[in-house]
Amino acid sequence: MKKPLSSPQNYVDEIDRQQPYQGELMLHQEESAHQLVQKINQIIANRSATALVLQDIAHLLGVVFQVDCCCLVSVTGETSDEPISTNWCADEYLGLPHPEKMFSMEQLLMHSPVLQCAAQPLTIEDISLIHNSLVVGCQYLPLPIKAVLAITTRFGGNNNGVIGLIKFQPYDWSESEIQLLKEVEWACAIAFSGVAQTQLIAHQQQYLEKSKQHQSLIKQLTILSRSNLELNQMLQLVIASTAECLQADRGLLILLKYTDPLFRTQAKKQIPKAKATVIGEWAREVQSLRTNKPNTLNQFFLLSDCGLCQRAFIDSGKPVSFDDYTDQNDTSPAAALFAVEEFRAVLLVPLETQGKILGFLVLQQSVTRSWQTAELNLVEMVSAQVSNAIIQSQTLRQVQTLVDERTAKLQSSLELQAKLHERTRQYVEQLRKLNELKDEFLSNMSDRLRYPLTNMLMSIRNLRLPGITPERQVRYMDILEEECTKEINLINDLLTLQKLESPHEAPQLEPIDLNTRIQHIAASFEKKLADKGLNISVDLPQESLKLQTELESFDRILQELLTNACKYSERDSIVHLQAAHRVDQQIDQVIIKVTNTGRAISEEEATYIFDKFRRGKGRWTAGTGLGLALVKSLVQHLNGAIAVESLPISDSEQSEICFTLTLPQFSEESKP
Predict the structure, then answer these.
(1) For residue 567, which of 520, 510, 512, 628 has the smallest C-alpha distance?
(2) Cα distance between residue 91 and residue 69, in whole Å
(3) Structure letter (DSSP) for residue 280
(4) What is the CATH number assigned to the segment(s) 227-371?
């Protein structure tokens, strides 16, 4: 610790404060060595602030020896960074300007009368030690040195300090002065030793304090590595904690993204193609006024453009440190975001795992700084933990991605299995319904075929009876003809349905007068309806409608609809037959409605009422169950549509059953 010369203070102990150095102090020739040693020991014993012990001793020796200046300089050891020097100067020399040109060691060596050593014999090392100590301790003296009496102090067999008595005028030192200086050497050696011990204790305390800080940092980083923080958040806390612990002005965490993923297999010391991105940054809040706090978070640069980062690859992943990076003459300078002009001291430690550099941990200082070995070891430990955290995060991310993919595939497989299960269930349900339809079809077909054949067989047997009258013969022949006609019609209907459901030719269209045709069909049903106590009401447009359709199919559709109405209408009700013209989306359509009053059709029945051999539940009216199925096929053959609607009648158990037939008025080729 170098201290410049300052004005003299009351560097005396408590006894001397009450009894200051008196004028009756003897001259140094008359002062006994015993009294002087006692005073030095008293200073050592009474001074609580050990840093002022040497100052008080220099004051005492300067007064006793009546010199212009007294200089005490400790000898540096392994535990000291620099020597401790203390000067005392007489009052008449205080406030004088410093000389432009100070003395040098060479001047002391060339002018032997200037320097005189009290201890004899001296080695070359002792002379060099005295010269070096005087250079350190006398650099702030106000006048050139003309005479020096010096002695080295030894404690425990080693030199631990130098005492220098200085005159600014030529002077010959007496034997009594030399002898007195020798006598006080041991007491001063004890003082130097005490100061050295105090300095050693202070260094040890600083070391312990730094060790505690380093241990606390490692513990904090261990806790962070086990936390559930996102990687970037954890890295931000790591760089902040590390920079604060090492009292750096700035810290950066940089990650690399390689252009070539196979770089690890390439030769060592080769600079790869990579992009470096700052993902963590910390800067001290209090900085000098000339320094602006940079903000480099998420900024990036190419590794090929940064000579500082390239050194880590050249040195095979070892830490790179600079006390002052501005002294470097790199052909490739550091990236601009490092701001080495502002933060000259740089410590860059690679984040390395299995020979691959993942990024860098960077600490910077705005002033020149020598990075200690303990600091380098600590930052390397931090870098190792950060590297492990990055690898773990990447591994967990890959595992999570794999788990998500497998989970998505499993979910897709389960959904597919669920769909297949539902499809299978639907198929089973369809098969069950088809089985029911088959049973119903066989039942209906057996009835439709067996009853006519039974009647025919009975009529044939009766015709063979002897003595049958002609009238009975005619009756039985009529039954035979009627039942045979039913069988023929059933077969024809089945053949017609089969023909309509298979690929067929387009309908043979021809123009008809709709009003005339409907009136004709309605008239043919009047007797049949009257036999069941029904009336028919025909509602047609005043102006006759023209319809282009297939006549045979059109007639069969209306006949089946009227037959159905005749079967299921309540007695003494009216069957309504309506026709109208409608234009829907610029398409001319003919709407025909057949409405009767009867038992309601449920929503379930409406879904299959147009299916083959399906009849409404609870309806025992004779029939084949093919009529409405044939109607639907014929309507589709004519490019039309048919629908059924059941509307309940208020205050009645009956409903209005309405079949609505929609047919295009003209074909696509013959539109007017």
Answers:
(1) 628
(2) 10
(3) E
(4) 3.30.450.40
Tell me: domain 510-664, CATH 3.30.565.10, correct? yes
Give the residue among 518, 564, 583 at the shortest CA–CA distance from 544: 518
Q: With b meaning 16 or more CB within 10 Å and e meaning fewer, what string describes 139-163? A: eebbbebbbbbbbbbbbeeebbbbb
CA neighbor of 362 nearest in space, from 298, 282, 450, 472: 282
Check: CB of residue 593 under 8 Å from CB of residue 661: yes
Inter-residue contact 243 to 356 (CB < 8 Å)? no
pLDDT digits (tens, 9 = 90+) for 336-392: 888 888 898 999 999 888 878 889 999 999 988 888 888 888 888 888 888 888 888
CATH homologous superfamily for the domain 14-203: GAF domain (3.30.450.40)
User: Under DSSP, is residue 597 helix (H, G, I), strand (E, B) or coil?
Assistant: strand
204 and 352 Cβ atoms separated by less than 8 Å = no
- Tokens coding 322: 């600079």
- Dist CA 312 CA 314 (whole Å): 6
Token pair in block for residue 350? 């690679």
Report residue 654 as tokens: 């009956």
Q: For residues 365 and 343, is the Cβ–Cβ distance under 8 A?
A: yes
Q: How confident is the model at residue 150 (pLDDT cuts 50, 70, 90)?
A: very high
Instruction: Enumerate long-range contacts of 91-98, CB under 8 Å, 24 or more apart.
Output: 91/8, 93/68, 93/69, 93/142, 93/143, 93/168, 94/7, 94/8, 94/142, 95/7, 96/142, 96/143, 97/142, 98/140, 98/141, 98/142
- Residue 349 CB contacts under 8 Å (≥ 6 apart), including other chains: 319, 320, 360, 361, 362, 376, 379, 380, 382, 383
At residue 586, the 3 state secondary structure works out as coil
Q: Mention every residue, 6+ apart, whose C-beta is less than 8 A from residue 23.
A: none
Tell me the whole-structure pTM to 2 decimals. 0.46
pLDDT band of residue 70 (cuts 50, 70, 90) is very high
Residue pair 564/595 in contact (Cβ under 8 Å)? The answer is no
Write the CA distances from 215 to 37, 61, 221, 379, integer angstroms: 47, 47, 10, 12
- With 70 as the cut, is the pLDDT of residue 483 above it? yes
Torsion of CA 468, 470, 475, 477, to 10 degrees: 90
Bridge partners (DSSP) of residue 163 are: 72, 151
- DSSP track, 206-250: HHHHHHHHHHHHHHHHHHHHHS---HHHHHHHHHHHHHHHTT-SE
Instruction: Please check whether residue 90 is in contact with residue 69, taking contact to mean a CB–CB distance below 8 angstroms.
Output: yes
Specify the 3-state DSSP secondary structure of 632.
helix
Alpha carbon 58 to its chain centroid, in Å, reads 68
Distance CA 656, CA 644 (A): 10
